[in-house]
Amino acid sequence: MAGLKYLLFLGCAIPYRMPSYEVSSRKMLERLGVELVEMPEFNCCGLPIDSVDHDAMLVLAARNLCLAEQQGLDILTLCPGCAGTLRKVNLSLQEDKKLKEHVNGILKEICMEFKGGKIRVRHLIQALVEDVGLEKVKEAVVKPLTGLRVAEHNGCHVLRPAKYIGFDDPENPVLLKKLIEATGAECLDYMYETDCCGAPIVGVNDKIPLYLAGDKLRNVKAVKAEALITVCPFCHMMFDINQPRIERLLSEKFGIPVLHYPQLLGLAMGFTPKEMALDELRVDATKILKPNQQH
Amino acid sequence: MGDLDPKFKYELSKVPCFEKLRLCFQCGTCTADCPISRFSDVYHPRRLLRMTQLGMKDRVLCSESLWLCATCFTCVDHCPQGVDIAGVLRALRNMAVKEGIIPPVFRELTANILKTGYAYRIPELRLKKRMKRGLPALPKANTDDVARLFDVLAVSKVAKKEKQ
After folding, report:
1. In terms of domains, do B91 and B20 share one?
2. Of the residues A124, A159, A180, which one is the last residue of a structural domain?
3. Which of B33, B40, B72, B144 to mutate to test the interface with A (most CBs of A within 10 A)?
4. CATH code of residue A98
5. Are the Cβ atoms of B153 and A211 closer than 8 angstroms?
6. Which tens digit of pLDDT belongs to each residue from A69-105?
7. pTM of the predicted protein model
8. What is the ipTM of this complex?
């Protein structure tokens, strides 16, 4: 796997409130021999402003893509929102000449030009499956998590809209499950597995997202999963940081630890819980650790 | 029924994402498969699309439920008529913003991006903590570029209203 090198697009949510995801991802990727190059002068991917002004989303995304084109490196993101947005804009500007002209007309103001066709945008799990490869991930496992039963939550923008993302089957996604199984853990199916976590409307409505995420936690608990695995800072926030709030609102106790996938893989690679920043999770995750991992 | 704008759908037909709106025959797949609709009495994408087709411009643009789409894109992938439902709702939101209707959270996000390049104002302390844990410094965004782009698109004024 020599030579895998990406420009890391961190986005806003991860540096703002999810360092555990960043720390565990960087360590895990380094162990796999993936080189990450920092991305200077990047800005928000554009997604949050799409509802305000579609053109503003397009030019913010396109500006980031231009930065990557200048470096000639594929973008790797940890956040599916960033991945989805950058990927969609990268493809639609290549497909639609008029749109590309329109966007470049605005980018001219900052002396930039989107060329197109030069770089690709990858989400972390897409890079792991398609670029690194499941076999290589399996080979890196030295302390298999045999006996651990978990569930997964993909995050919508990893899979949808299918037309632009083209990764896995959105109706029956299996690739994150395979990545989880590569660690030796078992991945369980549960009801409404592919439903959204509700995070994108948190600022607009304070109840619906909590009910939605609570319903998912209930379904995860019903299949007796010991932990929930996510690959998105927003999904993680809903299930982990908000879990105590959800429990109060629904008068129900879940107590389900929520791990970022890189944390799970990192443990199986032999990293300590501390190195994988497990102590930063809101819901205590030490109960899922085996005796040989508790240090 | 006084607020019907019969020209609304023609006005919309020129806007990207709306091209296929008239193909919606109200099958209800979008609402049936919508995870938000399962937990909301007011959010029904089918209803918003019908109201738009009928030209109920003011009611659609003032509707709180317009802002309840979580952009999971399930409806987009499932619509048998290929209507980009999430795209239609997004374009309607853009129109509402032009009329001055915007939930505070979106105004705040816009202001944050304009000021810092990022959607959130990341506290200094948290940036310093990155160094302590061996993470590289967060690159500084080029806020001049962002401000220039927002000015050209007249988005800056959306952020500025925050202070009024």
Report:
1. yes
2. A124
3. B72
4. 1.20.1050.140
5. no
6. 999 999 999 999 999 999 999 999 999 999 999 999 9
7. 0.96
8. 0.95
